[in-house]
Design a protein that fits this description.
The complex is a heterodimer of chains A (415) and B (107).
Chain A: E1 7-11, H1 15-26, E2 32-37, H2 52-55, H3 68-73, E3 76-80, E4 84-88, E5 93-96, E6 101-103, E7 106-109, E8 113-115, E9 128-129, H4 134-146, E10 149-153, H5 157-168, E11 172-177, H6 189-201, E12 205-208, E13 212-218, E14 221-226, E15 231-234, E16 236-239, E17 243-245, H7 248-252, E18 257-258, E19 260-262, E20 274-276, E21 281-284, E22 291-292, H8 297-313, E23 323-328, E24 331-337, E25 344-350, E26 355-362, E27 365-372, H9 375-386, H10 393-397, H11 403-412
Parallel strand pairs in A: 1-2, 1-7, 2-3, 7-20, 9-16, 10-11, 10-16, 11-12, 19-21
Antiparallel strand pairs in A: 4-5, 5-6, 8-17, 13-14, 14-15, 18-19, 21-22, 23-24, 24-27, 25-26, 26-27
Helix pairs in contact in A: 1-8, 9-11
Chain B: E1 3-7, E2 13-17, H1 24-30, E3 50-53, H2 66-72, E4 83-85, E5 98-101
Parallel strand pairs in B: 1-5
Antiparallel strand pairs in B: 1-2, 3-4, 3-5
The chains are: A alpha/beta (415), B alpha+beta (107).
Chain lengths: 415, 107
């Protein structure tokens, strides 16, 4: 599979790009594989950067995606610290920032996403930081060592993970969120409300319906002015206000893009031999029935595995169940499936005990499960949703019924 | 520094020396030990760093936490009394030359 002299060029050395290279070799692909990565570091896992990395000792080490020896052993060329300047989809070649060009049989955009930047006055001041790369996390880790009060802008996953980590280090933490709920786009209303209350109980000053208006420097510290006219002192401001997919290179190459690089179920873009996977891909979702773009390890990993099959065998599609996780202090949130704001919730377990799941139903059928400190529920929900077993609220309301029992039964009857 | 010995079902083994406090998962992932995935980055959330610890070391290990307990029931390869999640076992002097077996399947 894969003629010896053909080449796959992968743009991006994140979770998706590295998994693709690994899976291509696992599929027996024999052509050349080149990964072009703009980060200079050995490719690393991002999720710990907003969690463990910030709470470990003084000089935390990133967790690599693969061992340094992996690339040579698998005959994968890793070109770190380089960017792709342009793509010629007719001649099938890419031009790199070191002046070299690489021909390709298959080109894969695994370009990920970048932080949406703060646009308010003062956004460029020292002490105002985002969090996405290892370099960001290292800078933040150092700043945390000196900071006493932090203002976090945005109560999404990253903002809340950082806020909880900073709080665990004993800092005073204020979170500003212009929407009325934390994680509003990603979770059910009841879960969002419970997280808001729990973070407040842990001493985080969570301000909903309040955005940032400006940031000013006053001597060695910062003042954050909010949309309600309130002001907050801070020696560190961290923003997590969403991301933008890295689609500009694809656009400039004449490849069709929308809210991401548009691909079909086999992850093919509008240009022959060109694909997109991970955070940057705008793909037809087999579970929601519409196009979507997902920012998660699961999406990156499973799309990479699906694409490896497409490239190595010429067939295959991406149809995996989406799942997510977020660790916010002692709160471990895991989500299986895609929730919708109009879905009907059913709480399983005791919210007050901090260990429960929210099952979400659309037209009477289970579509997603959000689990808090209940990993067994999460794993069971993934099995049930992936196998498309029809679960109704009545089935879960039966005395003694659990997701785990239902998943066991589903396996037994071969669903 | 203590050493970990990872053995595979084909009888091959990898010895890795690590500093104290390093988890079995991090040691395996950083050194390319086959069969240890660590997909969630060490949060006891994915059960893809499942290992069987040599019985000789059972008594030396810290107790299984609540999160780990639940995830161990979700491993792909069958759980035994020697099952642990590699991300939850931190190396210390008393675990020097600990031997762990990597299951055939993680995902």
């Amino acid at each position: 599979m894969g003629a010896i002299n053909e080449r796959v060029v992968i743009i991006g050395g994140g979770q998706a790009g590295i998994q693709l290279a690994d899976s291509l070799r696992a599929q027996g692909y024999q052509g050349e594989i080149s990964i072009v990565d703009d980060d200079r570091a050995l490719p690393y896992q991002r999720p710990p950067l907003s969690k463990d990395f910030l709470t470990q000792g003084p000089a935390p080490e990133p967790l690599p995606l693969r061992a340094a020896s992996f690339f040579a052993e698998q005959n994968i060329e890793l070109r770190s610290g380089l960017t792709v300047l342009s793509v010629d989809t007719v001649r099938r070649s890419v031009a790199l920032s070191d002046g070299s060009t690489l021909g390709y049989a298959h080109l894969v955009f695994a370009t990920g996403a970048r932080n949406r930047q703060l646009a308010c006055p003062g956004a460029e001041l020292p002490g105002v930081l985002g969090l996405r790369t290892l370099a960001d996390a290292q800078q933040l880790q150092q700043a945390l060592g000196r900071a006493r009060q932090v203002v976090v802008i945005g109560a999404g996953f990253i903002g809340l993970e950082f806020a909880a980590a900073a709080r665990a280090r004993g800092l005073a933490v204020t979170v500003l969120e212009f929407a009325q709920r934390p994680m509003g786009r990603a979770v059910s209303t009841c879960l969002s409300d419970w997280f808001a209350q729990t973070h407040r109980d842990n001493g985080i000053d969570l301000r909903l319906g309040e955005g940032v208006r400006e940031i000013r420097a006053t001597g060695n510290s910062l003042v954050v002015g909010s949309s309600t006219g309130d002001e907050y002192d801070a020696d560190l401001v961290v923003y997590g206000i969403g991301v933008l997919p890295n689609i500009e290179l694809a656009q400039a190459s004449g490849i069709h893009t929308e809210n991401g690089i548009t691909v079909d179920a086999a992850l093919r873009t509008s240009a022959a031999g060109v694909y997109a996977i991970g955070d940057c891909a705008w793909f037809p979702n087999a579970f929601s029935g519409s196009r979507t773009r997902l920012e998660s390890v699961q999406n990156a990993t499973d799309q990479a595995k699906a694409l490896a099959e497409v490239i190595a065998t010429g067939s295959g599609e991406y149809a995996a169940l989406p799942w997510f996780w977020s660790t916010q202090g002692a709160l471990r949130l895991q989500i299986a499936g895609l929730a919708h704001p109009e879905d009907t919730p059913l709480v399983l377990g005791e919210m007050r005990a901090g260990k429960y799941s929210v099952a979400l139903f659309r037209k009477g059928v289970l579509t997603a499960v959000e689990s808090v400190n209940s990993p067994a529920d999460h794993i069971a929900a993934r099995k049930l949703l992936a196998s498309r077993t029809e679960i109704t609220p009545a089935m879960l309301r039966e005395p003694g019924s659990t997701l785990k029992e239902l998943a066991k039964r589903a396996v037994l009857i071969g669903a | 520094m203590p050493t970990i010995i990872f053995s595979q079902s084909d009888q091959s083994a990898t010895e890795i020396e690590v500093s104290e406090g390093t988890t079995l998962m991090r040691a395996a992932v950083s050194n390319g030990v086959a069969g240890i995935v660590g997909e969630c980055g060490g949060q006891a959330m994915c059960a893809t760093c499942h290992v069987y610890v040599d019985p000789e070391f059972s008594a030396e290990l810290d107790e299984i936490g609540e999160d780990e307990e639940e995830m161990l029931d979700c491993t792909t390869a069958a759980r035994t009394e020697y099952s642990r999640l590699g991300c939850q076992v931190k190396m210390s002097a008393k675990l020097a030359r600990i031997r762990v077996s990597v299951p055939n399947e993680q995902v």
